[in-house]
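Bit of a strange request maybe. I'm writing a small parser for structure token strings and I need a real example to test against, not something I typed by hand. Could someone generate the tokens for this chain?
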Amino acid sequence: MSKTILTCAVTGNLTKPEMTPYLPITPKQIADSCLGAAEAGAAVVHIHVRHPDTGKPSMELDHYSEVMHLIKAQNKELIINLTTGPGGRFIPSEDDPKVFAAGTTLCHPLKRVEHVAKLKPDICSLDLNTMNSGADVVINTPANVRKMAQVIKEAGVMPELEIFDTGDLNLAKDLIKEGVLEGPGLYTFVMGVKYGLNTDPATLLYMRDQLPQGAKWAAFGIAKAEFPIVAQAWLYGGHVRVGMEDNIYLDRGVLCESNAQLVSRANRIIKDLGGELATSREAREILDLKK
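Reply from user aminoacidic:
Good idea to test on real output. This should exercise your parser:
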């Protein structure tokens, strides 16, 4: 295969500051972590933002804008992928399950892509899953996905379709048929989320073989599956992702101190297998990014 694109997901939504003291929180910390990951070999950075004072997940436009500004001031080639995942979580009340409980983030789908429309990153994620997630539920109805996809298309941003289970891929194919999404598409398989795709090689091979002809794809594993999935994805011809959104350990019981460490480990795995990471410029050509 051609060179491998490595994406680094630097902070995520569910990793908590109390889990590791090394998690980037402020816009500057997130930007610096992105730049460090790029120096270690990442061609793409996948970005969530947080409230600097609490470390809790944020959807504030100003936080995204500041991170992008800080990155571009030092590295204009690095491919920026902004999340649109926040705003899809529903926690039912114990007394009345149709009423939301504390911790629910479910909001109007246009709010979830507001930053994409205004900031126009190279790529943004688009989750297609409605599923159990721990004790909660993540909700991405086809109608809401269509609304988000339309905004992404009008912004000229490439959607990265995050696939958590087999039905998500079927939804993507239907949306391509409808013209809501442009085919064959860019896909990322999320492996190891409980009640989603398993992390065994047979599952990844099955999912790869269900993709539309000519699709570009990557995969990543959660927690201890992170580095095994790097190897599996490369062996099956896909691109890869690592980062503290997905895993905070470098070895068993050893916290990583930076996203760059995770990228360096993945880089070594790919090189040991005979592969080579793509630069951001090369990744732009592989993905046929328009800007």
